Amino acid sequence: MAIAKQQSSVNLKQPALKHWILLSILAVIWGSSFILMKKGLEAFTFDQVAALRIFLTFLAVIPVILVKLKDFRRKHLFPTLFVGIIGSAIPAFLFTAAETKIDSAVAGILNSFTPLCTLLIGVVLFGAAFKAQRLVGIIMGLLGAAALIYFSTPPELDGGYLYGGFILLASICYASSINVIKHYLQDMNPILLTAMTFALLGPVFGFYLAGTDVWSRITTHELGWQALGYVTILAVLGTALASAMFFYITQETNPVFASTVTYLQPIVALFWGFLAGEYIGWPHLLGLGMILGGVFLVSKVKD
After folding, report:
1. Which of 171, 204, 217, 222 has the fewest beta carbons under 10 Å from its own?
2. Is 9 a residue whose pLDDT tops 90?
3. Has residue 64 got a pLDDT over 90?
4. Which residue, 201, 195, 231, is CA-closest to 84?
5. What percent of the chain has pLDDT over 90?
6. pTM over 0.85
7. What is the rounded distance in angstroms from the CA atom of residue 134 to the CA atom of residue 119?
8. How far apart are CA 122 and CA 103, in angstroms?
9. What's the start-to-end Cα distance of the chain, in Å?
10. Is the dihedral of CA 35, 36, 39, 44 positive or negative?
């Protein structure tokens, strides 16, 4: 009941042009993150890539932490910690673990289940209004994503689909985090939220990395420094900058619209496939059209 009351006090805005522009930029950044993770896995283990991503993000936001720490409120501590663990740390490990078995483009496509999870969690736990048009939009997007899954390179047969379940679990984590941001961190500066999220996580994963052979892999593996470069890009652009943008979009609009960035990511994944010489035909374009139609319907629902 208390959570439902919290929902009524949250100011939900309709997406404006600037939100669509930011969502598109975010889709490009996050849509490219899957290939960056795959490149990192060429030299590191999955847990090292995930831990490096978080630790390097922490290093990147230290200047913000030093300047903005005084503005951090005690009431935001536990929601921020929740966002850090559930919305950043756990998905980082789930994605890299999944990509040891499945293709990076398929991982990006499977992440399209996030908006549906966001809607369901919002309705069940946060008292969000159930709107038929929004559900139709999400189902349309899911069907488009399913079409892309079907016509894209499938996972490996030896457990690949099981590893795909890791992506679905990550989607649930993202959805939970998105709702918490909207309902408990609405009044927190998105840059400060990004900085504090990784301030709470970074040192922990720094110590974790110290107990692994990550430095040896960097200096002795033939792709060590190159892989570190990819993970650094992933941390600075795909995590630090992208997280601040995503938090801003979530606060400014609504959780379901913000989560539809995961519907746009497959477009970027297909673009990378096109550059790599992969076949792109009418089924892929049909799937993309359904995804974009779903995003449009979801964004037009008034809360």
Report:
1. 222
2. no
3. yes
4. 201
5. 43
6. no
7. 9
8. 30
9. 19
10. negative
Domain locations along the chain:
2-299
Structure tokens at 278: 């992969």
pLDDT (mean) for 50-76: 94
Matching residue, tokens 């979530």: 250
